[in-house]
Automatic annotation (TrEMBL):
Lineage, opening ranks: Eukaryota, Fungi, Dikarya, Ascomycota, Pezizomycotina
Annotated CDD domains: CDH_like_cytochrome
InterPro entries: Cellobiose_DH-like_cyt (IPR015920), GMC_Oxidoreductase_CD (IPR053208)
Keywords from the named record: Signal
Keyword Magnesium recorded: no
Residues annotated as signal peptide: 1-23
Superkingdom: Eukaryota
Residue ranges of every copy of the Cellobiose dehydrogenase-like cytochrome domain listed in the record: 31-219
UniProt-listed Pfam families: CDH-cyt (PF16010)
Keyword Signal assigned: yes
Originating organism: Talaromyces islandicus (Penicillium islandicum)
PANTHER family xref list: CELLOBIOSE DEHYDROGENASE (AFU_ORTHOLOGUE AFUA_2G17620) (PTHR47190:SF2), DEHYDROGENASE, PUTATIVE-RELATED (PTHR47190)
Name of this chain's protein: Cellobiose dehydrogenase
Length: 293
């Protein structure tokens, strides 16, 4: 595994003058998502500096260019080199790796999982313990890319221990950073427990904001964020069908007689032969929880 002890401070100091060479432009491209109608400022890193390209996007509340926002709607599209090395990508909301709120995203079982991270040192970031909240609006995964649109609340200021930080939207521009890895994380079923190698490529840049980034439609767009994906927190999907059904048979056996009376007795047979496994898998994966009927 490569060391995380890179000289990111030096990189930040020179990156502003290198953006044109690296294909990372501060000027946003306004993009309207055809499915949701959400309008984003977007910044794209070309495949010259990434493996397949990467695009970040933001939409902000209507007054965000006058008053610092505390949340945003985000767009992130990252590339996968193949179906095995699906990779991960990350966003720094403060620009630098250290003392910034970091967001990781990666595909898993046709959905996208995320993890907030933080580090004060140039080391593998730990799970962020602050109150940032991510709710998904939509996600798409194919053989070459994965795309996530999400609402990120309490994400533009952060506190970790005695460290604090903030991104100012009223300034009209701020630092953003991204990172990308070809290799997929290990322990992918549980975002808090993933093990990941250092990124293969990264950049820090100044993101200039257009007048269209702050929209009066923000509240209606934010209301589209209804899905919280919590894969792996209820069950480890590396387990076999037999192991999983055994867990649910045990759960059945521990139900009270009154509770059993409200369940269909033939469901016990379905637990035993594994017929319910795929529904359990899909519902837990999508964050809906699992309920026997």
């Amino acid at each position: 595994m490569k060391s995380f002890g890179c000289h990111f401070t030096v990189f930040f100091a020179v990156s502003m003058s290198l953006q044109g060479c690296l294909g990372q432009d501060s000027t946003p491209i306004v993009y309207k998502d055809p499915d949701t109608g959400i309008v984003f400022d977007t910044w794209t890193a070309s495949d010259k500096v990434t493996n397949g390209g990467l695009t970040l996007g933001l939409a902000l509340p209507s007054d965000a260019l006058k008053t610092d926002a505390t949340e945003f709607i985000g767009y992130i599209q990252c590339s996968s080199t193949n179906t095995t090395n699906t990779g991960w990508c990350g966003l720094s909301l403060g620009g630098t790796m250290t003392n910034s709120l970091l967001l990781m995203a990666y595909p898993y079982n046709q959905t996208i999982l995320t993890s907030f991270r933080y580090t004060a040192d140039y080391a593998r970031p730990d799970v962020y313990t602050g109150n940032a909240t991510l709710t998904q609006i939509s996600s798409h995964v194919n053989s070459s890319h994965y795309t996530l649109i999400y609402r990120c609340q309490s994400c533009l200021s952060w506190t970790e221990g005695d460290q604090t930080g903030k991104t100012s939207t009223s300034a009209g521009s701020f630092g953003l950073g991204w990172a990308q890895s070809i290799a997929a994380p290990k322990n992918r079923n549980c975002p808090d427990n993933i093990v990941f190698r250092e990124h293969d490529s990264m950049s820090i840049f100044v993101a200039n904001l257009s007048s269209e980034v702050a929209s009066p439609s923000y509240s209606s767009w934010a209301a589209l964020a209804t899905k919280t994906v919590t894969a792996g927190k209820a069950i480890a999907f590396s387990q076999t069908v037999e192991e999983v059904t055994s867990i649910y048979i045990h759960a059945w056996e521990t139900l009270s007689s009154d509770a059993k009376a409200h369940q269909k007795q033939d469901k016990r047979e379905e637990y035993a032969n594994g017929e319910m496994f795929h529904r359990m898998h899909d519902e837990i994966l999508m964050g809906n929880g699992f309920q026997a009927q």
